[in-house]
Amino acid sequence: MTGMKVEGREGTENPMNTDDNVVTNSYRLLDEVAVSLEQKCILHVCGQRSGKSVALGLSDYSLALYDVCNLHRVCSFPAHTSTITDVKFSSKNEHLLYSSSLDGTVKVHDLRSKTCVAELKDDSEGPSMLKPISSFDFSSDENFGSAGTELFDGDAFVLFWDIRTSKLLGGYWESHTDDITQDKLHWFRGMDSTFNISCITHTEELQLWEIDGASPFAHFTREDIAGILKDDTVDNTYLVNSHNQEDGGLLIIAGYSSLKRQDLSAFSLKKPDMTAVCSVSSMNGNKQEVRGSWYNAKDQVLLTGGESGFLSLWTRDDESNTGHQTKNFKMKHKSKSKPYQRE
To answer: Residues 16, 37: contact at Cβ < 8 Å?
Structure first.
């Protein structure tokens, strides 16, 4: 990493840490389960605020709920008729789960009854002409929802609903000539406790933005990421997600995928300016290209899911990881888990 640079806040270049002052450690694979005997890809991983359960969006258009502590399946059910494009837990009610899909719907599921209790869609062109949803989010009070679509009849749309009534409020169109895809956005606290945004782009780059910034204050290219992870082929390097850490830093999950190996790593960016890499962690035992991750910062527990359908539970393998819940995980996972769970 010697000589690698990122753009600073004042437009200057700040040198990143060199190999001499980057801490190297590892995450240990504590447990792992395959979601099915059939080949299913885990596309999305999302955890409850309580940290008790994670929801998975699967490639067979279904949703599955797993207990974080023992990786037992709580429930699974069919959710859509086409590819699931996002999964989000309600911030107000942990029993409610949102999912969006290319079938043209955003659904709200009650996990207690495993039923859809609300559905958002644009059927203004007819019930068989729904616009394919490629990204979705809701307001902080969950009263309103918005979604971007893939191209539909030569145009892409941004749609808005009142979630309380499932009523379509309107949308924008004739402003996009390509699919509206949401880069992976993540909010974190920056200097002076202001909120900043990390963005993982479709070109496998990491950008850090201030809310009122005209350009990213830090920008890690795919080449930069490969250098941090010491990957020999840039084109095989990919980014998965970014997560908040208890010390205010960011944990970035990244991988290397080839026919010969599937590597997974994490690196930490530290305050105050988030431009310095302070640690790089290896994850020995990864078997797949990872598509989604969820991180419990308090207990330093990470869950990943990916192309081969494995849900993997990782913990920091060092003396600093002394969280009570982590000790519980280690006690409960002393024996080797089953390689799969039956439907």
So the answer is: no
In this structure, what token pair is assigned to residue 328?
Answer: 């519980």
| CA pair distance 78, 305, nearest whole angstrom | 19
Backbone angles phi, psi at 136, to 5 degrees: -155, 145
Check: CB of residue 104 under 8 Å from CB of residue 84.
no
Q: Residue type at 53?
A: S
Half-sphere CA count of 271, side-chain side, radius 13 A: 15
pLDDT at residue number 41:
95
Which residues have CB under 8 Å from 117's CB, separation 6+?
Answer: 96, 108, 109, 110
pLDDT tens for each residue of 9-21? 444 344 444 455 6
Q: Is the dihedral of CA 277, 262, 77, 301 positive or negative?
A: negative
Give yes or no for residue 322 having a pLDDT over 60: no
Distance of CA 161 to CAs 40, 106, 170, 197, Å? 32, 10, 7, 25
pLDDT digits (tens, 9 = 90+) for 53-104: 999 999 999 999 999 989 999 999 999 999 999 899 998 999 999 999 999 9
pLDDT of residue 15: 40
Structure tokens at 49: 């605020």
- Global pTM reads 0.79
Token look-up 């290209």 returns 289
> In angstroms, rounded to a whole number, what is the distance separating the alpha carbons of residues 244 and 277?
15
Phi, psi of 293 (to 5 degrees): -150, 155
Please name the residues in contact with 322: beta carbons below 8 A apart, sequence gap of 6 or more: none
User: How big is the chain, counted in residues?
Assistant: 343
The residue written with tokens 């962690």 in the block is 281
Helix (H) or strand (E) holding 266: strand 262-270
Helix (H) or strand (E) holding 324: helix 324-332
What letter does residue 332 receive in the DSSP assignment? H
263 to each of 28, 40, 235, 258, 285, how far by Cα in Å? 13, 20, 14, 9, 8
Do the Cβ atoms of 328 and 337 come closer than 8 Å? no
